[in-house]
Amino acid sequence: FFFPSPNTNRATRLHLQRSSPPSLQDTTNSMLRQTAQRITQRAGSRGFSVLTASEEFPGLAPPTPAPKSGSSSTLTTLPSGLTIVTENAALTSTVSLTFPSGGSSSELPTEAGAALANRYLSFKSASGLSSAVIVRSVEDVGGQLFARAGRRGATVGYTALRENAAFVAPLLAAECSFEKWDVVEAVKLAGEEVGSVAGDAQVSLTDQIYAAAYGAQSSLGRSYY
After folding, report:
1. What is the rounded CA–CA span in Å between residue 72 and residue 40?
2. Which DSSP string do the residues of 27-78 spell out, in sequence order?
3. Which of 69, 224, 95, 59 is closest to 149 using CA atoms?
4. Within 13 Å, how many C-alpha atoms sit on residue 95's CB side?
5. What pLDDT band is residue 1 in, cutting at 50, 70 and 90?
6. Separation of alpha carbons 202 and 180, rounded Å
7. Which spans in the chain are helix H?
8. 137-161 residue pLDDT tens
9. Nearest to 219 by CA among 133, 142, 158, 150
10. Residue 188 in 3-state DSSP?
């Protein structure tokens, strides 16, 4: 290293100062100036203004996820008495019709098994519509049909995407017009189900509980099957 003496002239001192390496602060400032110049030149050449990503690209998904929030349900009752439950966070919609008098407890003694057979008649031939047309119309939009029945009532409906739910709804209000083969097939399927649950311990225990609670000859005490 060279250390100038007090006798070194002024020109030599200036030369040494100019040839000495720049400090860290000088280097940082120089880099910042160069970066700012490049950004300014690029923005000027592309015609961009200082905008955020969401402002520059509308509709772009936010870089940070939205906070989690639970769905909320809304209960609406129409003047006809129909109750509608809607949920704002569901990707699918379920539309169902409930028949409180469609269960086996509403059967007359001579109508035993009617509720079970009616469950297999769900979504069968209607006025101007065949069973194939009804099922295919629902399946074409990714819907799933369901039909349930028991002692206290029966329910039919479907589950589909929210945007397709309204398209399938009129099929639930179609006027029934069963063909002979629909009834024959429903009775056959109902008989097969009765045979399959004949040895079911849960079904047997449930029948005994209802019979003990309501009486074996009462409407609720009789078996659904």
Report:
1. 49
2. HHHHHHHHHHHHHHHHHHHHT--S--HHHHSTTPPPSSPPPP----EEEEE-
3. 224
4. 17
5. very low
6. 34
7. 10-19, 24-46, 53-56, 114-120, 131-139, 162-168, 180-196, 201-214
8. 888 888 888 999 999 999 988 888 8
9. 150
10. helix
